[in-house]
Design brief:
The protein is mainly α and about 400 residues long. The chain folds into three domains: about 10-60; about 70-160, DNA polymerase, domain 1; about 190-375, Intergrase catalytic core (hpI Integrase, Chain A, Orthogonal Bundle). It has 15 helices and eight strands. It has helices spanning about 45-60, 70-80, 90-100, 125-135, 140-160, 190-200, 205-220, 220-225, 270-290, 310-325, 330-345, 350-355, 360-365, 370-375, 380-385; strands at about 10-15, 20-30, 35-40, 235, 240, 245-250, 250-255, 265-270. The strands form three sheets. The chain has a three-stranded antiparallel sheet with strand order 1-2-3, with helices on one face. A hairpin with a 4-residue loop joins β1 and β2 (about 20-30). α7 packs antiparallel against α9, α7 (about 205-220) packs across α10 and α12 packs across α13 (about 360-365). Mean pLDDT is about 85; it is low at about 1-5.
Amino acid sequence: MARRGKGGGTTYYHKGSRRWCAELNLGFDAQGKPLRVRAYHKTRREAEAWLAEQAALYHKGLLADPSKLTLREWAERWLERKAKEVRPRTAELYRLELSYALPSLKDPEARDPLGAKPLQDVKPAHLRAVLDGLMERYSLRTVKMVRQKLHTLFEEALHLELIYRSPVAPVRIKAPRGQAKPKAGRALEPHELSALLAALDQHQDPRTALALRLMLACGLRRGEALGLQWADLDLEAGTLTVRRAWTENGNHRGVSLPKTATSERTVPIPHATLARLKAYRLWYTERLGDPRPDSWLFPGNDPSKPLNPHAPNWALKRITERLGIPPLRVHDLRHSYGSHMLAQGAPLELVAERMGHANPNITLETYRHLLEHERRGWVLDPEDLLAPRAKA
């Protein structure tokens, strides 16, 4: 029987599975063993279409050869590279999120059947089984987070031509019937917002109060607000630029780059907040002298370092308790910013840019409930087109 050349293939009926198999020949390995990729389909036509598509990709150099690289090994490579691109805490979170599905990333001795599979052998059914198992032990939000990280992991492999199709794409995560969807955060109601802003104006520590106001008025993360220096402000133009973050990782506190590349951004400062920043500069100068460009905007007791990262949390807790407002997290201030921007009709892409999200899909997923509510309010009545109502 003649050997099929590289990039050639065949289709045949597989009696065991009662499906049509499409098989593409990719040549031979160093030991002379044939290298092939195959897929099973319900009809011969589907199998032939798949084979033609894969053969075309192969001849364009877009189809990767099989590899012995395991999923765990690929995940380690990906995490190693990410550690050079993001903050240490973020890199740790990436590892933690992936370790739900690949436990050997956290404990090398752990049983990890999925991680032991060759990268190119991982199928949607394997991921479906793992994620279904996680659904029995963890919240919907956690499982969605794991799926998203796996999606990113396999997309990178796809772009580097290590695989020819992502096994994550067909796998969807839905809440079990009757289970409420988790909320990403709580947005302040108008009366709560009014009371909070008034309380911040009366707060005894203008540093903490203004840091909280910037999170609410500019959508900053806590670390981004505390990491601001005077050089990051342009009080004439009314803008601030996020260039770093003041973070805490265990017992270590330090300055790091923003969370992602898109987190480094310039955002406009609302007029009321800008006026308070100008007044704050006078307060600062009276106590610490004229600020240098590299002076911290919100210095701690030791002016060479920013405020304690927990100071905003403590202050917000005391304020909400005194006002009788339901508990708020510091991150809820940023969430309120995004919610109110979208409620006012700001484009999704603009909100994503202002908040420093890696892509608008993150914004869409976070505020989907709000966007769906707003969409229901957009109703076109044909009669209004024929006889427009008089303006009041």
